[in-house]
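User: structure tokens for Transaldolase, please.
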Amino acid sequence: MPANDLSTLHASLGQSLWLDNLSRELLSDGKLANLIANYGIRGLTSNPAIFKKAIVGSPFYTEDIATLKRTYDEIEAVYEHLVLSDIQQACDLLRPIWDESRGEDGWVSWEESPRIAHDAASTVQAAERLKKLADRPNLLIKVPATDEGIDAFEQLIGRGISVNVTLMFSLDQVQRVFAAYLRGLKALRESGGAVGRVRAVASLFMSRVDTLVDQQLTEIDTAQSLALRGKAALALAGMAYQHFREVFEGEAFSELAQLGARPQYLLWASTGTKNPTYSDVLYVENLIAPKTINTLPEATLKAFAEHGRLASMLKPRLAEDRDVWAQLADAGIDMDGAVGHQLLNEGLDLFAEAFDDLLAAIAATGNVPD
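Assistant: Done. Predicted tokens:
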């Protein structure tokens, strides 16, 4: 058993822990069930890079690949049906939490093809298709926060489809995504839909922000810039959380809330620490706040269970976060412009590369004789 009882985090501090991983191995040997039972996991996220790691070279998928290749001509269709079983099993394992929490938690995220990240119409069509294919009420469709993705997100909420908006790296994206959510909810209400049945989260990435910004601060090489290293991501999170409270605890959301609409929770993503000189739970214990989600790699989850602090909150750091934000601007770090755009493009490229590599590996996998 872990040193910390992580199941108390949601009950006492209002934050949910989701696992940032999915594989057939995780499902087949009871690991996911154990993490749900003993480590406080209340949801799950996946992405093309995660599925590439899970599938390529794994014996758990070989026979199914061969069978599916005899059924479907398109390799992307083979991939979708290959991971469909994993998605459905994860949804079923988390369904009791979804039921008990009345849809606050118990969700599983399935990311669309990165090939359509800049095509709003295709994004909407793919979301509808994947939702129907999975046939699980606790499925979140992951849509990237490109301009076209945000447009598609608004349309999907208007159609009552629950969404995880991913690859967010800037306060500008947070503001635009929240605004799109409100517009989508209003459209859903006007069409006669039930606003209380749709769920959305906003995935704001952490360690990738510090990796890039720290590099820029090191290149500036002043005492002031060097002192800011390791602070950008947490400042971004603090500012984003403040905006969350302004939007969803304010007048703009009050009428929708009375109709049963849920706030769009911030989901802290990329919370595995990349810089070995930083704490391995830097983006966990410093991001505990009510009505937020942290999606963790298994190693980070277990590190937090063993030696993390379950008391830190975002709210007391608000003045500090604003000061760091201002100092970054003074140093010439364009957080909402150059930094956010570069990280979004790099994230899209990373997922596209992983997706293409995965499809190529599936295509190269030999058939099993009938």
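User: Anything notable?

Assistant: The chain has one domain: 7-364.
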